[in-house]
């Protein structure tokens, strides 16, 4: 707590600046005033500057510039070209280029989403196909209690699956005569 007594130290100055900034931002509760507007603009400017610095430090420098320059992976320059193509939306003569990159990114996102869906749900769908009669064999022969229990649980599972699917299928109005039957 030494820095509170000494506001001239760096830590004390930071704490006092934060406290005064907080009070300035809370002055909006009285009414909009020039102190609030100045604090708002200062906060937004600092947040934007810090955000750009973090993006450069953590992403662009480490994951883009270093691999490109030091490791010779010059194909990363295509990421810059693709990123700049987004900004052609502001130039009416070149706006078609922004549609190209947006279409490519939407296709990429759709492919990744389909791959995730396939990897997550197709195994679940496949595991819902269970045999109704299960014969459990042991070295001594057929294990009747285990076979009856496994067959019962599979039949119960299929009944539950069909019941839930039927409920969701018929929970909205069916307009087709074939489906109504």
Low-confidence stretches: none
- How many E-type strands? 2
Q: How big is the Rg?
A: 32 Å
Intertermini distance: 79 Å
Round the mean pLDDT to the nearest integer and report it.
88
Q: What fraction of residues sit in β-strands?
A: under 5%
Strand count, sense and closure of the main sheet?
A: 2 strands, antiparallel
Description:
The protein has 181 residues and is mostly helical. The protein is 72% helix and 2% strand. The protein is built from seven helices and two strands; from the N terminus they run αααααββαα. The protein has helices at 2-5, 10-26, 34-69, 77-86, 95-127, 144-169, 177-180; strands spanning 137-138, 141-142. A two-stranded antiparallel sheet has the order 1-2. Strand 1 (137-138) and strand 2 (141-142) form a beta hairpin. It is elongated and about 85 Å long. The mean pLDDT is 88.
């Amino acid at each position: 707590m030494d820095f509170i007594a000494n506001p001239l130290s760096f830590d004390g100055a930071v704490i006092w600046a934060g406290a005064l900034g907080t009070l300035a931002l809370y002055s909006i509760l009285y009414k909009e005033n020039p102190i609030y507007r100045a604090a708002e603009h200062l906060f937004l400017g600092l947040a934007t500057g810090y955000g750009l610095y973090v993006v450069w430090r953590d992403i662009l420098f480490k994951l883009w510039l270093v691999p490109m320059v030091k490791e010779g992976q010059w194909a990363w320059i295509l990421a810059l070209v693709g990123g700049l193509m987004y900004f052609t939306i502001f130039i009416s003569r070149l706006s078609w280029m922004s549609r190209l990159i947006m279409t490519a990114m939407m296709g990429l996102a759709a492919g990744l989403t389909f791959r995730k869906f396939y990897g997550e749900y197709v195994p679940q769908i496949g595991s819902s196909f269970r045999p109704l009669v299960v014969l459990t064999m042991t070295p001594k022969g057929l294990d009747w209690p285990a076979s009856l229990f496994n067959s019962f649980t599979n039949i119960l599972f299929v009944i539950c699956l069909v019941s839930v699917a039927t409920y969701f299928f018929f929970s909205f109005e069916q307009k087709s005569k074939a489906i109504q039957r």
